[in-house]
Amino acid sequence: MKIIDLRSDTVTQQTQAMRDAMLVAEVGDDVYRDDPTVNELEKLAAKILGKEAALFVTSGTMGNQLALMAQTRRGDEVIVSANCHIFEHEVGGAAVLSGANLRMLYFEDGMPDVQSIEAAIRPDDIHEPQTALICLENALANGRVVSAALMAEIYQMAKKHKIPVHIDGARLFNAAAAQGVDVKELTKSCDTVMCCLSKGLCAPVGSMLAGPRDVIERARKYRKMLGGGMRQAGFLAAAGIIAIRDMPARLHIDHENAAHLADRLAGLDGVTLDRRPEINMVFFHIDRPQKELDAIPAKMLKKGFKISPAENGRFRWLTNNDVTRQDVDSAVDALASILK
């Protein structure tokens, strides 16, 4: 039985073009910087993201943590959203790796606002830590997209205070596709940016960290410290090149399938959408007792669909390159039969 996986876009399988490229990739030792395929990926990523330099890293978490390590000193403070990945899902890395304090701000529905961020910047006071970095997400973990205009407003404020801005862009290309803009329209409003290659872009492994050359050089050294100095990594970089070069152009299909999924779910009795999806993420509630909600993932799996359990009563389904419009319809039909 074919299994359709709606748990995340991290489950994407590499395309045949990626498999072919990996098979014939020219490789070297990346720690010595003589892996030509990694070098090509880093050069290409820097160009696409509009930055001086880029670094191939194993994961989005590593990329974010390297950005913090390279731009803060022990005891510095980093402004973040209380719901952001850096705070919630990176195992307390900022405390362990950077010795930095995370100042959490609560934004309505996760959407940052410039006034709250500016008010959180520390004064020059001997009793207070120095605000060293502002971290934003785009797209947000709740699937919302931060507009290019809002990104620019926050960045201009940060520049006024001489504080760098880092973007956790795990789904940055989705955010750009949703707004119909080139990704550089978003990255021009930051100093450093991380983007994942292994989510909607379908690479098997890896993320990119891009920014000023001196910052990326510091991050490269810290990457080695963390055990991320890969050797013949060109096999992975070959897939990454295709991911960042070719795959953003098809993300609108995932978004359209997510919109169709939302429409179908909204037609089911007892199902309530959180909101219309802006990218490939659909959040919804089912009005059933908790015991019934807990049983739904196992029942869906028997019908050929992998889904995550409800979190605080809310389900999250994601479309991706391996999920067709027909798969979406079949998944909703399966859920409807369970709810009857």
UniProtKB/TrEMBL annotation:
**Domain Aromatic amino acid beta-eliminating lyase/threonine aldolase per the UniProt entry, residue ranges:** 5-286
The parts of the chain that form a coiled coil are none
GO BP terms: namely: glycine biosynthetic process; L-threonine catabolic process
Protein name as it appears in the record: Low-specificity L-threonine aldolase
Q: Which InterPro entries match?
A: ArAA_b-elim_lyase/Thr_aldolase, Low_specificity_L-TA-like, PyrdxlP-dep_Trfase, PyrdxlP-dep_Trfase_major, PyrdxlP-dep_Trfase_small
Chain's gene name: ltaE
One Gene Ontology cellular component annotation?
A: cytosol
- Residues modified to N6-(pyridoxal phosphate)lysine: K199
Which organism's genome codes for this protein? Candidatus Ventrousia excrementavium
Q: Does the keyword Lyase apply?
A: yes
Q: Which EC number(s) does UniProt give?
A: 4.1.2.48
Q: Which domain of life is it from?
A: Bacteria
Q: Which cofactor does it need?
A: pyridoxal 5'-phosphate
Record's PANTHER family?
A: L-THREONINE ALDOLASE, L-THREONINE ALDOLASE-RELATED
Molecular function via GO: L-allo-threonine aldolase activity
- Swiss-Prot/TrEMBL keywords: Lyase, Pyridoxal phosphate
Report the family membership: Belongs to the threonine aldolase family.
